[in-house]
Description:
alpha/beta; Rossmann fold; 14% strand; globular
Amino acid sequence: MRTITVMNQKGGVGKTTTSVNLSAGLAARGKRVLVLDLDPQGHASIHLGVEADGNMPTVYDVFAQRKNMQAVRQLVSKNLWLAPSNIDLAAAEMELVDSPVREVILREALKELAQTETYDYVVMDCPPSLGVLTINALTAAKEVFIPVQPHFFALQGLSKLFSTTALVSRRLNRELRVSGIIFCLYETGTRLANDVCDDLGDFLSRSESDTPWADAKLFKTRIRRNIKLAESPSFGQSIFDYAPKCPGAADYLGLVDEVIAMEESVIEPQLVAA
């Protein structure tokens, strides 16, 4: 099972779009995929056609330790499961402040789930912040995918993401690595986009070998700006259901194939107790 955290503390960079469409594409390729919506806004859930009301079990129930992950997750399409979220999850940040196990609740929930359910991928869509929900995702995962928009400020924001990953790697999860960086909202042919990609590649090539991002892959597939990608969430569908022949679907399918091609070099994550 590959456990992947999709994170960026900056909003509007394609994080949820990537989490949903990467997961849907993997499912379409025959992989069993579980999406964890860890954002209190619940955008990944809405994108997959699920609006969690007060009666529906959500990820919040897992953090509140009222339900296990098996009771929360639901099948939304063939090979694709979702653990939904809503605004209730915002309370978890405050409620877990004094909990001695606040950073490992999600890891333990996935460990318990793995005893009864088998998934090829668990994809975690994080909120645009570096709080306890994101720390839980980093503690539970082995891989981190970072969607970035190829702009100058995106490079500056990466330094914070890298330092957070390094901190979690040292203290909570030795297996954690930044394994992929995805360029989203890509404007083909612009000099700025190409320069940012080159600068990031140069930075990674000069990174120390013991850093969690030393072996990060710059995915060759660029997710271009596409209006269909912006429209599909309002219909509660992935891009493959909404507009399977559009450029956005082609881009995400290319990304899916790159992610699957990485499998031979990925060691099974060890979800051990703290």
